[in-house]
Design goal:
Number of helices: 8
Number of strands: 5
Structural class: alpha/beta
Helix content: 40-55%
């Protein structure tokens, strides 16, 4: 009999400001997990917004609904043996807590990672040009945003995440390795 990859699923939720490094870390982590034979899905916040949450805006209620939709999909995947990696801003603590509780109720492992990159570093990276557009006063008209998370719209940092990553102090593969170590420590990989 050959060894099969473990079928234990889990959600790894990467939360942080825009341009903090969430998606980059998710890509490195998912590549490693796939190379080991794990079933992995990355639920990228931008893709979710475009398809699953099309039509939602950026009000608090819409952001909450978006996070709940992503949380549901992630929990279903994880409950069915997939390692679900979720790089989504999820700016409100109560929204993230609702997702955590959904996982707890189903007995599905959940790992919250705060990608705690300072706003000044995120502004320098400005991967999508959001900080520049916000500074120019052009963000609302172009995207329908009510404000930029962490600048003129709130971001409630996690109080007790399983891991805090300061990405300005390390390269992305090292951050992914730190997340992997948490998963290994919990027996999930």
């Amino acid at each position: 009999m050959t060894d099969k990859p473990r079928t234990q699923g889990a959600t790894v939720w990467l939360t942080g400001l825009p341009s903090a490094g969430k998606t980059t870390i998710a890509r490195f982590l998912s590549d490693r997990l796939r190379a080991e034979g794990h079933r992995v899905e990355v639920l990228d916040g931008d893709e979710i917004r475009r398809f699953l949450s099309a039509g939602l805006g950026f009000s608090r209620a819409d952001r909450h609904m978006n996070v709940q939709r992503v949380g549901l999909v992630s929990e279903v995947l994880a409950r069915n043996g997939v390692l679900s990696v979720v790089p989504v801003i999820a700016p409100y603590a109560d929204s993230r807590e609702a997702v955590r509780l959904r996982h707890e109720k189903s007995g599905t492992p959940y790992v919250e990672v705060h990608v705690a990159t300072p706003v000044e570093v995120c502004r320098e990276r400005d991967v999508k040009g959001l900080y520049a557009r916000q500074a120019a006063g052009a963000l609302t008209g172009l995207t329908g945003l009510t404000g930029l998370t962490g600048v003129d719209d709130p971001y409630e940092a996690p109080v007790d995440p399983e891991l805090v990553l300061t990405t300005q102090d390390r390269i992305p593969p090292d951050s992914a390795d730190a997340v992997y170590a948490v998963l290994a420590g919990r027996g999930l990989v």
